Amino acid sequence: MLRVIIADDHPIVRVGQKVVIEANGKCKVVGEADGPDQLLGVLSRTPCDVLVTDFAMPGGQQADGYCLLGLLQRQYPQLPVILVTMFANVATLRAAFAHGARAVVAKSASAKELPLAIKAVQAGQTFASECLRVQLIEAGTGDQSQEPQLSGKEREVVRMLASGMTVSQIAAQVNRSISTISKQKSTAMQRLSISTDVDLFAYARSTGIAP
Fold first, then answer.
1. Which of 57-66, 89-98, 120-129, 144-153 has the lowest mean pLDDT?
2. Are 211 and 201 in contact (CB under 8 A)?
3. Is residue 125 located within the same domain as residue 173?
4. What are the φ/ψ torsions at residue 51 (nearest 5 degrees)?
5. Helix (H, G, I), strand (E, B) or coil at 193
6. Do residues 7 and 33 touch, judged by C-beta distance below 8 A?
7. Which of 20, 71, 124, 171 could pair with 178 in a Cys bridge, judged by C-beta atoms 3.0 to 4.6 Å apart?
8. 4-aspartylphosphate occurs at which residues (predicted)?
9. C-alpha 40: how far from chain center
10. Nearest-angstrom CA–CA distance, 54 and 86
11. Given phi > 0 = left and psi -120 to 50 = alpha, else beta, which region is 101?
12. Quick one: 31 and 127 in the same domain?
C-alpha cells in the first residue's frame, strides 16, 4: 500500500483528494496538514512514500511556495513531491520543477490526473497537467525544468507592479520612460510565459519577489 500525505489549507480540498487517491485501493492517506508548519510536523513523525501539497498555504513560520519546496527537498530529498496549485502557468511549472517538485497538477484539472501523477512519480518520472503541457507547447519552451530568469530591472518592475504601483508611477520613481517600463513588464511576462497581470502578481507573491 502506497502511503501518501496531503497538505492543503482547505478541508474540502483534502477530502476530495483523499477520495481520489484511495479510490483504486492501492494508496492510503496516512497524514494530513493544513499549513507548512503542520506539514513539517506530520512529515517528521509519519513515514510516507509520496507528498501531495498545495503551493501557497497561509500562516506558519515557514515561507510558502518555492521556499517550502526547497526546504522539503533539503530535508526529504528522496520524497517525491506533487504540487497541486491554482497557479497553473508555465512559470510556476518550470520554477516548481527547478525547486524539486516531481509533478505539478492544476487544481482545475480532472480527478484522474492526481492518480496519474502519483503513478508517474513512483516510477521515477515527472508529470504535468494536460493544460500545462498545452501551455508549454504554445509557448515553445524547451527544458521545462529550467527556472525562468529575469534581469534585475525586470525583477524590480515586477516587484513594484505587484506592490500596487502603476507603470507611470514606476517610471517616475526610477526615472525611466513609461515606454521603457512597459517594455520591461512585457519582456518579463514573455520570459515567464505569463499572459495576465493576475498571474504575474501571483507569481511575484509566490516566489517572494513581492510580499
1. 57-66
2. no
3. no
4. -115, 130
5. coil
6. yes
7. 171
8. 54
9. 18
10. 9
11. beta
12. yes
Separation between Cα atoms, residue 141 and residue 143, nearest integer Å: 7
What DSSP character marks residue 110?
-
Poorest-confidence range of 3-12, 99-108, 189-198? 189-198
- Summarised one tens digit per residue, pLDDT across range 147-199 is 567 788 888 999 899 888 999 999 999 999 999 999 999 988 887 777 778 77
Amino acid at 31: G
User: What CA–CA distance (Å, rounded) separates 153 from 175?
Assistant: 12
- pTM of the predicted structure, to 2 decimals: 0.69
- What is the structure's pLDDT at 10? 92
C-alpha grid cell for residue 102? Answer: 516531481
H-only helix segments in the chain? 11-22, 36-45, 66-75, 90-98, 113-122, 130-139, 152-162, 167-174, 178-192, 197-207
- DSSP assigned state of 144: T
- Asked whether residue 122 falls in the same domain as residue 176, the answer is no
Please report where in the chains the cell 518520472 appears, as a residue.
Answer: 125
pLDDT tens-digit map of 10-50: 999 999 999 999 998 999 999 999 988 899 999 999 999 99
* Measured CA angle at 186 (ends 158, 206), to 5 deg: 35
